[in-house]
TrEMBL record:
InterPro entries: FKS1-like_dom1. GO terms for molecular function: glucosyltransferase activity. Coiled coil: none annotated. Pfam families: FKS1_dom1. Signal peptide: none annotated. This is 1,3-beta-glucan synthase component FKS1-like domain-containing protein. It comes from Castanea mollissima (Chinese chestnut). Residues 148-262 form the 1,3-beta-glucan synthase component FKS1-like domain. GO terms for cellular component: plasma membrane.
Amino acid sequence: ILQAHTAVEEKRQLYMPYNILPLDPESQNQAIMRYPEIQATVSALRNTSGLPWPTDHRMKVNEDILDWLQSQFGFQKDNVANQREHLILLLANVQIRQFPKPDHQPKLDDRALTEVMKKLLKNYRKWCKYLDTKSSLREPTLQQEVQQRKLLYMGLYLLIWGEAANLRFMPECLCYIYHHMAFELCGILAGSPMTGEPVKPVYGGDDEAFLKKVVTPIYETIAKEAKRSKYGKAKHSQWRNYDDLNEYFWSVDCFRLGWPMRAGADFFCQPLEQLRVDKNEKSCFDVFKLKKENEREDN
């Protein structure tokens, strides 16, 4: 039993859990990993040259762009693993349909990269246009860095989406989050225009920082509104559903929320009109309760 346990532990160090793609070093010869399109995308993702890693980061074998994004923004480990497979398969599936075929395989084709990025960020670009706001996506000055930058933009979007949970019902809210985090991403890579020093994300790269500091406060607001709905029995004017909360991000007024998000912003607070309604309802309930008590005393 002990020998079997030791053998399992040794294999656990060699093999990583996966859904479709075995990306650990010991699985390179499996059939699915021999596709040129898969090899090209994996190779492109592992190009981390020029990316500033945190000083206390311990480098691992085959780290890629999504690992770097995790170190900067604090995404969850399993989310990173899932979205890595997601992005690889998206790009490989588009590249395998390209005609004519790319000349230099295995190499990620720019046509596939552009097509997938266009689809992923379509709503974000429409959101920026609707609000007449400049996009946070900046192309690098060096041509050889363009592919890496596009992979970073797509990876960041998928990592935000993968960890957003119920916030996916609020697509413009996700656009707001992505807008600020993509701007921070450009600052990390280009440095501050004043000092030239790399810009640090406002929420840092601590473990699960994105979940705890970005997703959780918004989710708690949604939960409070759902509680006030009284299981759908309350009047709609007395609580906000997903659409109502998402409408907040349809106007430039949403930028009042700031980044980091202000805890006292009106998005997180119950409207004053509603507070008055709730207070009046409570007062009426108290009067009714007092009346019933008086009737029992008279009897």
